Amino acid sequence: MSFKKILILDTGKEWGGGTNSLLELLKRADRKRFGFTALFCNNYKMGAGSDISTELDKIGIGFVQLGRGRRSAYLKGMKEVVRSVLFFSGALKKKYIFSIEYINRILPDSKRIAAVLKEGGYDLLYMNNQPSSNLEGILAAKSLGVPCIQHSRIDVALNPFEADAVNNWVNRVICVSNGVKDSLVGSGVSPDKCRVVYNGIDTGARPRSGSAGLREDLGIRKGSVILGTVGSLIKRKRVSLLLKAVSELKESKLACVIVGEGPEMDSLREEARRLGIRDRVVFTGFSTDALSYINFMDIFVFPSEKEGMPRVILEAMLMGKPVIAFDVAGARELIIEGRTGFLLKEGSHLAPAIKSLLQDRALMVKMGEAGRKRVIEGFGIDNYVKGVEEVFGEVLA
Asked: What CATH class has 211-378?
């Protein structure tokens, strides 16, 4: 296969696991076969110190920010009118809001993406989010007859128009887990379109900071048992469930560390104060060294209600930590119930599962060791990169 030019489209607004997975892919992809340029809607921040364009530049990937038309107050106003008038029907409300978005945002953006594709002479459009948020990319590729690949990173339900768009105009959908594939097929996407390529991580990665130093920096007293989580502080991550569990656990030497930032930060701080656990909870903000924080935790908790294949669970297992999560897509394919952690049914409380580990330190260690072995044997970064490149080759052949 001759050298091929690939345009990456990312419509996201914030740094997340999908961003890290994309960067890990680009660091290792075969540059003799593939040339990459990244087209992002937002030059979003990597904490306070960097942003995506800077990080891409470090690995030699060109960055283009999509010029988007001005979003008028009219568009927002129309959505609010629809929400008010169609309050009685969720289905109708979704349909009309989608129509407004399609006409006023998706179609105009698809033309801008098509212009970049055409000007750059790209052979492939590779989309890094999921069909609902990359529909403008699908339409752009279709308008030019350029093949496209969707890398779907979260469990989603598509509307009929989106499912038809995938079936008719997307060459392949890379699903980060079988759970993601099942949700797409359940929405009407043809199973033949889908390829499961699990997320992977560098199994040789090591923490940059020592646990003793972090403990001191965060003011956590010696001998405390540390549980925590890492991720964007957004509603679907349900960090409030972790705070509730901490309030229910009466162990005096229990500390909770929450690594990440996002729109829920202030309300979570207020929730910790309301529950009377503010002195037992530490909010670190965003960190470029999440692995070090995970390494100094004793138990990793992941309360999210919707995922695809959470990178952070892979990182926690690599660091030898037992993981407690809900039985959602991705998590159920990583965690072996009772062996590497606990998978909870929706509606369950976190506190009992945490308490069972606090009362059995040997089980805590055993689960952590089993999780580390599982990641090393089955979820290395090379398998991930190879799988994605195989799909590139298949579509471009």
From this structure: alpha beta
